[in-house]
Amino acid sequence: MATFLYRLGRFAFRRRHFVALFWVALLALAGAGAAGAPAAGNSSFSIPGTEAQKAFDLLEERFPGSSADGATARVVFKAPDGEKMTDAGHKAVVRDTVDALGGGSEVAGVSDPYEGGGVSENGSVAYASVTYEVSGMELEETSREALEAAAEDARASGLTVEIGGDALQAVPETGTAEIIGIGIAAVVLVITLGSLLAAGLPLLTAIVGVGVGVASITALASTLDLGSTTSILASMIGLAVGIDYALFVVSRYRAELAEGRGREEAAGRAVGTAGSAVVFAGLTVVIALVGLSVVNIPMLTKMGIAAAGTVALAVLIALTLIPALLGYAGRRVRPAGEKSKLLGGGRTAKKADRPNMGTRWARLVVRRPLAVLLLGVIGLGAAAVPATSLELGLPDDGSQPTSTTQRKAYDLLSEGFGPGFNGPLMVVVDAKGASDPQAVFDRTGDDVKSLDNVVDVAPAQPNKAGDTATITVIPDSKPSSVTTEDLVHDIRDTGAGITADTDADVLVTGATAMNVDVSQKLNDALVPYLVLVVGLAFLLLIVVFRSILVPLKAALGFLLSVLAALGAVVAVYQWGWLAGLMGVEETGPIMSMMPIFMVGVVFGLAMDYEVFLVTRIREAYVHGENPRQAVVTGFRYSARVVTAAAVIMMAVFAGFIGSSDSMVRMIGFGLAVAVLFDAFVVRMTIVPAVLALLGDKAWWLPKWLDRALPNVDVEGEALAAHDAARTEDKELVRA
User: Whole-angstrom Cα distance, residue 460 to residue 449?
Assistant: First the structure.
């Protein structure tokens, strides 16, 4: 591995014009494809194998043209204080609005509040439901504009008018905080590399990689049904790892220059050593992201594969474009320990005999490894405590900022009709196999009405064939509450009894039931996913480190950091700690996808730092140093760069906390905190403490396994042997 990458690095350095042209052409090609592609919307959402999805599919079959998965909107009207929506003047305004909404080309139907029971008991609130023939992702902008225009016209009469539903779902925006994150990354790079030019290389290559990745996602968005969130998450992860991977190669290049090697040789050795770590670190991230497909949620699978593709691009760029750009930079990228004239006049930054911060920290840890280990584990354990009260759900309009019309509509409906009105349950009764379908419909309605936490059960609405009906159930609690989830299970239990007696299928669906099924599916998939991803990465790390205990320690450390990060997410987004500082306007359940997505991404990133840090330690160990001294040597050369990489990644992830999308905000915060815990507590503290305690045992590997494993040579032993042979040849020639 090291020898191949060494040759690749030298090739890219020598043939820099060809390499640079290749990446520019690829970026232009992807950009052209993105420019001509339709804009990405919100990806369609399906959960194969769940009862809610089965009911949706049945509705499509038995109620053709009903657009069961079409976009919906609720236009909510509130009369001024002291007036009622049943007043003649307000009635006329509402009916004019209904007529205006019904004229849209994509509108399937509009309900009249005064004919369909859409007026609250006290008469202060009314609503009209609008259904569309296409999903929210496919809805044209003209339809959204017509919806907003109709509401604005109604407001002119003095009514309060707000719009809820998924018809107004906007493409998420990341805001200016992302730019601030990149700015912080740039400052850290300048401080770490001591040169504006050297600092610019990782930023430039990361932007190229993300540009190719996001442009490709945009070009394929319509064909592959990729939502706008997919490209945002791919850019978040791609930017973070792209900067980090390039930073490690540039740092190793400067270290090789400091040892007196020529620039082409230094580029080759940087790619051969640091590049090997980049390859295996990237592989762990890709495994973790692609492994999300085992959950069998198409949207999550697409997000994982798209992000994995961006990570793969970041690896390829670090191995090829970075050495090419180093060739262009020439002497303007200085050896390690030297600063540019602008940042220090070209003089040596520190005295050669003065130990750096990484060395001092490592010496402190190896002197008191047990105390440091206990302190780190107890600290992360305390941070993980809130995770024990984790509640999962999917966001609805109740989690929107209070300034949005969707949230205002949600609150008005809760005020007029009760909190459960925002999350109605749809019971689908398939009585095709029953002898008396109407009797089954009536029994189902009566049995559901007798359950606790049910406010209202609408009469059954059969299809034309009379063999299938829908029954709308209004709970007494808000959609995201545990009480509503219990009601979903109670209805399904009741339906099982009806099925046993009548051979009719009773299914529960709707957005709330879908949320329940998603949470259950994700919970069921978490353990298999962990076994698959951690197992594959464990095998990969055994090959890299040629050790059993080091990969085991890496996996256990990851579990600590991810639990602590989930604890922080619960504390902020569910309990409300520091909610104002984080811009959290409404606390509630944690998004169902958050734990498994965090597990995947954080595991990949955690292994990044494990590979970068421990390969340097193992490199020193295999070259003859004792275990504790190897830890100190590894930290001397890698701690500064790993610290910089972690700060950069935290800054990039934290930048996405300013996104308008609640899922992106939560993931950005969770990943930033996870990197903080994993890089600084686990990798920089617990790892050296454990290695110091284990000593030589850390690198133990059964002889039979050692013979069976391929030698990937991450430490560059082949390169060292090559140097030794070349030196010996020179001495023989001189003799």
Answer: 12
Q: Which pLDDT does position 723 carry in this prediction?
A: 58
CA angle 372, 375, 378 (to 5 degrees): 145
313 contacts 2 by C-beta, under 8 angstroms: no
Task: Report the C-alpha gap between 711 and 718 in whole angstroms.
Answer: 10
pLDDT band at 344 (very low <50, low <70, confident <90, very high): low
| DSSP reduced 3-state for 472 | strand
pTM comes to 0.77
- For residue 493, count CB atoms less than 10 angstroms from its CB and return exposed for 0-12, middle for 13-18, buried for 19 or more: exposed
Contact 289, 304 (CB under 8 A): yes
Name residue 393's beta-bridge partners.
591
Tens of pLDDT, residues 209-255: 888 988 888 887 767 767 666 777 788 788 888 888 898 899 889 88
What is the CB neighbour count within 10 angstroms for residue 1? 19
- Strand duo 454-457 + 468-475: pairing: antiparallel
> Quick one: pLDDT at residue 445?
92
Cβ contact 591:569 at 8 Å = no
Nearest to 690 by CA among 635, 608, 627, 634: 627
63: left (phi over 0), alpha (psi -120 to 50) or beta: beta
Take residue 205 and report the two structure tokens written for it: 């290559």
Task: With CA atoms as reference, report the closest residue to 288 among 322, 223, 241, 219.
Answer: 241
Match 């750009």 to its residue by tokens. Answer: 325
Map residue 131 onto helix, strand or coil.
strand
Higher pLDDT, residue 544 or 690: 690
Q: How far apart are CA 271 and CA 278, in angstroms?
A: 9
Contact 78, 160 (CB under 8 A): yes
Q: Residue 505 contacts by C-beta under 8 Å, 6 or more apart in sequence?
A: 429, 430, 495, 499
- Per-residue tokens: 375: 């302190």
Per the rule left: phi > 0, alpha: psi between -120 and 50, beta: everything else, 576 is left
**Tens digits of per-residue pLDDT, 423-460?**
889 999 999 888 889 999 999 999 999 998 898 898 89
Token code pair at residue 358: 């990484």
Nearest to 678 by CA among 384, 280, 471: 384
- For the chain, the 3-state helix, strand and coil shares in percent, each to the nearest 5, are 70, 10, 25
| DSSP secondary structure letter of residue 657 | G
In the chain the first and final C-alpha atoms are separated, in Å, by: 34
Which residue, chain included where needed, has tokens 């590049």?
275
- Residues counted in the chain: 735
**DSSP output for 294-341:** GG--HHHHHHHHHHHHHHHHHHHHHHHHHHHHHHHHGGGSPPTTB--H
Contact 679, 639 (CB under 8 A): no
600 vs 300: CA distance, rounded Å: 11
Per residue in 171-220, pLDDT tens? 555 555 567 777 888 888 888 777 778 888 888 898 898 889 888 888 87
Kindly give the pairing relationship between strand 590-591 and strand 392-393.
parallel
CA distance 477 to 423: 9
Task: Return the structure tokens found at 357.
Answer: 């911060």
C-alpha to C-alpha distance for 431 and 716, rounded to whole angstroms: 69
- Contact, 321 vs 208, CB < 8 A? yes
Phi, psi of 660, rounded to the nearest 5 degrees: -80, -10
Does residue 304 surpass a pLDDT of 60?
yes
Q: Which residues contact 454 (CB under 8 A, 6 or more apart)?
A: 448, 473, 474, 475, 476, 487
Instruction: Write the pLDDT tens digit of every residue in 388-418.
Output: 988 877 767 777 777 788 889 999 999 999 8
DSSP assignment of 155-182 equals: HTTT-EEEEESGGGPPPP---THHHHHH
CA-to-CA distance for 329 and 201, rounded, in angstroms?
9
Distance CA 541, CA 548 (A): 9
